[in-house]
Amino acid sequence: MFCMNEINDNLLIHLHVPKTGGTTMRSLVRRQFDRSKIKEIYPHFGMADSINQIHDMTPEEKTAINCLQGHFVYGVHVYFQRPVQYIAMLRDPVEHIISTYYYIKGDPNHPYYQELTTNNITLDNFHEWRSQYFTELNNSQTRYMAGVASRELLPEDLEAAKKNVREQFALVGLTERFDESVFLLNKTLAWNIVTYRSQNVTAVRPKQKELPHDLIQRIRENNKLDVELYNFTVELFNQKIEELEAETKLELAKFIQNRKSFDFIYDFGKSMLSEQFIDWIVNVGSCRVYLFGAGEAGKLAHNVINEMNNRLGLNIEIQAFIDNDPQKWGQYLLGTQVKGVDSIDHSIADHIVIASMYADDIEKQLLEVKIPENKIIFSLIR
């Protein structure tokens, strides 16, 4: 179904198994496509709803998108008359069950919260719970990968799931090895992700080592299909890593080291900076820029660029701040002069970084003065 490093127009299907790091992966997928080209299916109640939503898409909608992602089982490609590539993440089954239980328990707005509390479901008897909206939570990763939406799982479903992992997915990553998974996706799908932050992490939950040994064993026993599928997927994942060329393995080590070093960026930017902007800084490496916005967002972008220059040996030169407020013109902010739009000189700057909450208006303004769209970069989350 796929070829390593193949660049094509296939429909990318991100099969998002809940509580496997898929929300973080979803954010990475969104960075690769125009939002109008992505269809996301996240039903509140039951797998049937997700299938219905896909089935009800018009032929025009199905051909217009480049990516489908959400909570649905394997097999939705049959609704699309075009080549596809699947990706997914799997997680250690014990961690998966613990995280799922405490995620539901900790969110009163979760659609299953009321059922969980009304029926006095604990982690001890979680495996016995059968919601009105789905068959069971046990072995749910096998269910997703085998394409079993509602019926009880059968032993042969495990073999179907293994076959799909081996033959039908461009990559099945591992939550516990997320950096390596992202690196392999970069190589497989020709992406350029360099940093990310974990999202939708279950905040309050015990660590596995803090739970009784017999409880851990019961979770494993009740999820033995998932345990076997996960171990099988780990073997395939290890094989992919081992088969990398020596030079690529060095690149992987550098990727992991750099990714961890980018945590300081979020100390600077909190939740304001877009990850696309950080990726752009690293990938461009060396260029000359104007910063449009001589306010707090502009200062943030200025500080992050300088810090990344210093830490990563980049060479991004800030030529000036640009601002629409005449009272700021001629002043210096962080040692850099503030100028008006008329001062933009194409010969001394390669890009204009918009660092302002009024990004859409500024973009229109720049396009009106004939600034090429590919020279405009956004620093903030939009």
From TrEMBL:
InterPro entries: Gal-3-0_sulfotransfrase, Golvesin-related_Golgi, P-loop_NTPase, SAM-dependent_MTases_sf. One of its GO terms (biological process) is glycolipid biosynthetic process. It is found in: Golgi apparatus membrane. Pfam families: Gal-3-0_sulfotr. It is a single-pass type II membrane protein. Keywords: Coiled coil, Glycoprotein, Golgi apparatus, Membrane, Signal-anchor, Transferase, Transmembrane, Transmembrane helix. Its main location: Golgi. SUPFAM superfamilies: P-loop containing nucleoside triphosphate hydrolases, S-adenosyl-L-methionine-dependent methyltransferases. Residues 227-254 form a coiled coil. This is Sulfotransferase family protein.
